[in-house]
């Protein structure tokens, strides 16, 4: 019999589960990464591919991960072990653990940047600066090793503290506050950006596809962003759904999260691109885009300092909600529901992640000249996690769901808490069994240049 400390925690309410899962999905992936990836990948064409991949691949896979986690009530690695004992399939869960570890090691760097910008705004250091001055300030800030490392360490301490508190007292309580605040601020800032002179040009860049911009890398990045934005392929949602009750409507919850994710990505684009074209910047600016464009917009508007402070607090919220899910998956894998072990593993693993993240924090300073495959250490980890580990993990999850879990068990689990019929189930099962693996394999082969050998 399990002790009290070993009892599996659960979300306290349906809304708590929605906010927590939305928090991990609608975090930096939507607010920081989507605008700069869209900017470097063709704007409207990328956004259209992102929409298609989200609805046809992301949502079915999200439902599948929900089903896996709830059917066993265990974190990801244990879920695969229970459903496919004495097989290689638990490696799917371990791929997720490794991916979460790597992602958090560089996500914590961005979270640290958000803290630095909050401090700079509070002290008035961002007021009345030109685009060039803001760009230089960003470069100087992230190039300073002690500032970058100190901010990263503080961000990790906050993340570790919340995760050590557990599911209800930590993740759920924080998400219930952060998610509504994030959405409200996003709407306000996007509305202000749309009043800028170059707003329409920015809207067209984001929403009007230029088909000549679509290349194999564009397709891969859109697929990776769909997985990244919904936290798919790393078994985050398998673990989160293991804490949910049988009364939760999984298809509906997945749809809500998918739609919210697209709305937030759209709002993030509408925050950024009107300013990009108004102030003559390049949409392909990269990761720095959000730290240069938005302060420029705020400096042009009444109460701009207040809006700037609100945004970077929002950005900090987004970074934290993403970080919670990433660390939770790793800690849950090792603690196995034991609260005493949770505290120990939270601090131990969090410290190791900070250490591994040090080269990423220094990638724009003392390690700027150190490159892997023509990428900085920071960018190489991002590419490995987003464009390789996530799609491979998603492929394995899709294969596992339809080849190792009995069809009747899947149907019964999906119907728990919902009234979906056989037609919905048959469509979902077809997409997961055939379309998702096929799409991922084709895109990988295209990126590797296999088709060029024949055409």
From TrEMBL:
Annotated compartments: Membrane
Gene Ontology CC annotations of this record: membrane
UniProt membrane topology term: Multi-pass membrane protein
Keyword Membrane tagged: yes
GO molecular function: symporter activity
Primary location class: membrane
Residues that span the membrane, as ranges: 12-32, 44-68, 88-119, 146-164, 176-199, 219-240, 252-277, 306-333, 345-364, 384-402, 423-445
Keywords, ordered alphabetically: Membrane, Symport, Transmembrane, Transmembrane helix, Transport
InterPro entries, A to Z: Na/ntran_symport, SNS_sf, YocR/YhdH-like
Cleavable signal peptide: none
Origin: domain of life: Bacteria
PROSITE patterns xrefs: NA_NEUROTRAN_SYMP_1, NA_NEUROTRAN_SYMP_3
Pfam family, one: SNF
PANTHER family hit by this protein: TRANSPORTER
Family: Belongs to the sodium:neurotransmitter symporter (SNF) (TC 2.A.22) family.
Protein's UniProt name: Transporter
Species assigned in the record: Alkalihalobacillus alcalophilus ATCC 27647 = CGMCC 1.3604
């Amino acid at each position: 019999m399990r002790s009290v400390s070993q009892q599996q925690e659960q979300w306290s309410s349906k809304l708590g589960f929605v906010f927590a899962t939305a928090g991990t999905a609608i975090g930096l992936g939507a607010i920081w990464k989507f605008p700069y990836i869209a900017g470097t990948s063709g704007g409207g064409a990328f956004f259209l591919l992102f929409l298609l991949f989200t609805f046809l691949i992301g949502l079915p896979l999200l439902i599948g991960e929900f089903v896996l986690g709830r059917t066993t009530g265990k974190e990801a690695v244990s879920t695969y072990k229970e459903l496919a004992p004495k097989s290689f399939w638990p490696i799917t869960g371990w791929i997720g653990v490794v991916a979460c570890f790597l992602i958090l090691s560089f996500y914590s760097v961005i979270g640290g940047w958000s803290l630095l910008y909050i401090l700079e705004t509070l002290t008035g250091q961002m007021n009345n600066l030109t685009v060039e001055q803001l760009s230089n300030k960003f470069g100087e800030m992230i190039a300073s090793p002690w500032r970058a490392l100190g901010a990263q360490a503080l961000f990790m301490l906050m993340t570790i503290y919340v995760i050590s508190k557990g599911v209800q007292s930590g993740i759920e309580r924080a998400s219930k506050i952060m998610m509504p605040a994030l959405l409200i601020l996003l709407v306000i800032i996007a509305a202000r950006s749309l009043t800028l002179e170059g707003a329409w040009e920015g809207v067209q860049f984001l929403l009007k596809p230029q088909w000549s911009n679509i290349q194999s890398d564009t397709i891969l990045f859109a697929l990776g962003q769909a997985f990244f934005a919904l936290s798919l392929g790393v078994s985050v949602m398998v673990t989160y759904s293991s804490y949910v009750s049988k009364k939760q409507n999984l298809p509906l919850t997945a749809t809500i999260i998918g739609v919210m994710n697209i709305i937030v990505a759209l709002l993030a684009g509408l925050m950024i691109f009107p300013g990009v074209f108004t102030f003559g910047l390049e949409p392909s600016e990269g990761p720095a885009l959000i730290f240069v464009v938005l302060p420029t917009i705020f400096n042009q508007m009444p109460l701009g300092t207040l809006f700037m402070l609100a945004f970077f607090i929002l950005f900090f919220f987004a970074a934290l909600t993403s970080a919670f899910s990433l660390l939770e998956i790793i800690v849950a894998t090792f603690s196995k529901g034991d609260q005493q072990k949770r505290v120990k593993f939270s601090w131990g693993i969090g410290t190791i992640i900070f250490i591994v993240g040090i080269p990423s924090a220094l990638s724009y300073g003392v390690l700027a000249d150190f490159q892997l495959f023509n990428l900085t250490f920071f960018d190489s980890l991002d590419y490995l996690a987003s464009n390789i580990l996530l799609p491979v993990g998603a492929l394995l999850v899709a294969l596992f769901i339809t080849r190792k879990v009995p069809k009747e068990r899947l149907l019964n689990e999906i119907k728990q808490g919902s009234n979906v019929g056989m037609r919905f189930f048959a469509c979902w099962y077809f997409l997961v069994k055939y379309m998702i693996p096929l799409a991922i394999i084709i895109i990988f082969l295209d990126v590797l240049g296999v088709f060029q050998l024949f055409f």
